[in-house]
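job 3f2a | input accepted
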Amino acid sequence: MRDRLLPAGLLILALFTASTLILTQPVINQVKKEVLKSTRIMAQLFSGLILSAIEEKSVADVLKEGLKDIDFPVIVTDHMGIPRAWKNINIDPNRFSARDLERPEKLKNDPEYRKLLWTLGRLSRLHPPVEILKDGEVVGYIYYGDPPILNYLRVLPFLLLSVAILSFLGLFWAAKSIQTYQLETLWVNFAKGLAHQMGTPVSSLYGWYEYLKLDPGVDQSIVEEMGKDLERMKSILRRFSKIGNGGKLQEVNLKEMIEETVEELRKRFLKDIEITMDLDDNAIVFGDRELLSWAVENLLKNAYEARRDENPKIRIELKRKGDRKIIRVIDNGKGIPKDKRKFLFKKSFTTKEKGWGMGLVLTRRIIEDTHGGKIRLKKSEPLDETIFEIEL
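job 3f2a | predicted structure (392 res):
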């Protein structure tokens, strides 16, 4: 059990970390562009003030007022690099008067002024300063840093990785300490915990996605693809959450559910394979649509991954048998070896070199525990016909 938990857990960690990195990088890049744009606008506004800022205290006050609503670190200097105004660098903007700043040699031993100069050097290493021009002449510079939200976005993938590692270690400890527990139950608990822990950062990413949708300066095709990835991640988290909580039961039209599931999977991986469907129009059950779709998806994915090299086919049937509804997924692939069939639905099982082997375990829980139905391997003849049947 532990030998199979380790690679599966590492795969989950890698998938979530990679997904988060992919989703956060466009946001980070966009925020950087907005900060640079704001800094250049400030440079234009300050161009008419910086010349007289050396002598006139009122102009220095105007500079400070101009920085009032800035939410990222910034220092404004004159053309000689002497600080004149600053914001968001943990130094009181009113710590020094305009007259004090005109005589920096008298401030060289002041700890706050030394901190100001150190911060100026740090900002210069982060980004090249933006020049303030007056009639083509450089009259000052704006040094700036990144807003706090960028630090959050940068560490977010590692925070998620830490959460996932803690969740995985908890699962691994449980598997080691309580060998009598079914592997299915352990994975369900892991799914619930992971869905709960990942919910907040995914919601945060979704907020940034909505922000980028409203920004005319962002390539909306990239934003659209980001939205699809986010919706997919949200769907996975909802499924993980529901698998441990029983789902929300309501009327489900099985024909519509199967058709929509197949259509989605065609876009993702059901390619270069013949798929036929024979679906009853009036097959209605009381269940959770998303979990039932996941169960059908697992069977279709297994059929696709076990496909034969030539003329692969998958057939989906939906029939009524009295008050029962029967779903069959039929393929002409490689089939299930006879000596392996007794492990189906009971433990981590896969015929693939790389795989979790959890699809059928979770599918059995969805069908039998949540919906009170049955799932069985009805027939398996390699390269001829393999039939998985769900009865609801």
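job 3f2a | Confidence is low (pLDDT under 50) at residues 50-57.
job 3f2a | closed
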